[in-house]
Amino acid sequence: MATFANNILSIPLATVGDKYYSLDLNYIACSSPVQFGLNSATEIASQTTTSGSFVNGVLVVPAVDVEGVSYRIELTLASDSPVFLLLHLRSNSAGIEGWEIHSNPFNSFE
Hints:
The chain is an all-beta fold. It has one domain (2-109). The protein has strands at residues 2-5, 8-16, 19-28, 35-44, 52-55, 58-66, 69-77, 83-91, 100-101. Strands 1, 2, 3, 4, 5, 6, 7, 8 and 9 form a nine-stranded mixed sheet that branches. A hairpin with a 2-residue loop joins strand 5 (52-55) and strand 6 (58-66).
């Protein structure tokens, strides 16, 4: 599972095409919309379970732990910098009933 702590979104295994990477994205404080910069991307050997995927310019992370709450996030690649913009954020607080749109947990870290 991906995690967000100390302003770093850590995605242990993301698929990008036919390659696999461990990604660390740095939260850019006070950004509107919410933005993350690529801090590191390390190619790793192929795996069977991923914690995110990058397809058609969108990074989808189905489960991110933010202080004990699980979120699904979608980020779009905004530039060659590379900077990612938050597109969608949903909380799994509704349990099996599905993901609910939730207030932005990243605001509390500014």
